[in-house]
């Protein structure tokens, strides 16, 4: 920009404003005539500035609208996630409530939420959100989807600890449903195994395994799993069977406790 021209124009403008009204219009016109180009440029600059300001306001409005839409989308995503999680919990609850056909009336069972999963060495445990105040006691059987997953080994007023059947220190008396072969179910790092099955007893693949109730700790007749394989040795008086179960304790949120 030519600053000299600008200064000169400003001086002329000041002179024009200071001219007495009594001066002839012709003289005043001579003074104002050099300012016409400056006025034209100023008008154009003002118009451009106005457009720039309007565009800036629009951009700011779009930014605010975009931020609002982003927040609304985030909120909707959160609500959808909560609804999906609630639906999963409802599915698990319906599965647990279907235990009525297996264990009898509702007064014989308590449904409890899992609030933590812990490990003590090789042992696996669950922490439940119900305890002594809800009627839970030590040695009560704990089921998921109709199958035994452990038993209660510790009880507080509002919580209870469950030792899972997958733990090496878990020992459960069981028998096969069809051939009534009896043994001891024990967990381990490699899976579930039934020990102390007499060699002369028939054990079939896919045969259902139930709790026997011999030790008096757990109610008899509760499903545990199915025979997956049988290991026999000619020099042993007992045979061993590997057990399979479809229950993944890392995917369940509720369990059923049998009184």
TrEMBL record:
Q: Which GO terms describe its biological process?
A: regulation of cell shape
Q: Which GO terms describe its cellular component?
A: plasma membrane
Show the InterPro entries listed in the entry: Cell/Rod_1 (IPR042177), Cell/Rod_MreC_2 (IPR042175), MreC (IPR007221), MreC_beta-barrel_core (IPR055342)
One Pfam match = MreC
Asked whether the keyword Coiled coil is assigned, the reply is yes
Q: What UniProt keywords are attached to this protein's entry?
A: Cell shape, Coiled coil
List the Gene3D superfamilies hit by this protein, alphabetically.
Rod shape-determining protein MreC, domain 1 (2.40.10.340), Rod shape-determining protein MreC, domain 2 (2.40.10.350)
Question: Coiled-coil intervals in this record?
Answer: 59-86
PANTHER family in the record: CELL SHAPE-DETERMINING PROTEIN MREC (PTHR34138:SF1)
The protein in question is named Cell shape-determining protein MreC
Q: Organism source for this protein? A: Candidatus Berkelbacteria bacterium Licking1014_2
Q: What is the phylogenetic placement of the source species in the record?
A: Bacteria, Candidatus Berkelbacteria
């Amino acid at each position: 920009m030519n600053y000299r021209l600008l200064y000169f124009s400003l001086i002329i403008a000041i002179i024009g404003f200071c001219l007495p009204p009594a001066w002839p219009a012709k003289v005043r016109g001579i003074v104002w005539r050099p300012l016409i180009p400056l006025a034209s440029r100023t008008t154009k600059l003002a118009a451009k500035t106005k457009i720039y300001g309007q565009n800036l306001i629009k951009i700011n409005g779009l930014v605010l609208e975009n931020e609002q839409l982003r927040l609304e989308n985030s909120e909707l995503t959160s609500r959808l996630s909560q609804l999906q999680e609630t639906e999963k919990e409802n599915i698990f609850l319906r599965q647990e409530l279907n235990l009525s056909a297996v264990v009898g009336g509702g007064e014989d069972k308590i449904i409890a939420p899992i609030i933590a999963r812990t490990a003590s060495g090789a042992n696996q445990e669950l922490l439940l959100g119900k305890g002594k105040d809800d009627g839970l006691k030590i040695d009560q059987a704990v089921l998921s989807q109709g199958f035994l997953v452990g038993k209660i080994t510790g009880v507080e007023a509002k919580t209870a600890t469950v030792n899972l059947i997958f733990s090496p220190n878990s020992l459960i008396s069981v028998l096969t449903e069809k051939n009534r072969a009896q043994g001891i179910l024990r967990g381990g790092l490699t899976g579930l195994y039934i020990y102390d099955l007499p060699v002369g007893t028939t054990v079939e693949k896919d045969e259902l395994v139930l709790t026997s109730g011999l030790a008096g700790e757990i109610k008899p007749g509760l499903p545990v799993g199915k025979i997956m394989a049988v290991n026999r040795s000619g020099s042993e008086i007992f045979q061993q069977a590997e057990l399979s179960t479809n229950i993944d304790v890392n995917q369940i949120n509720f369990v059923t406790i049998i009184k």
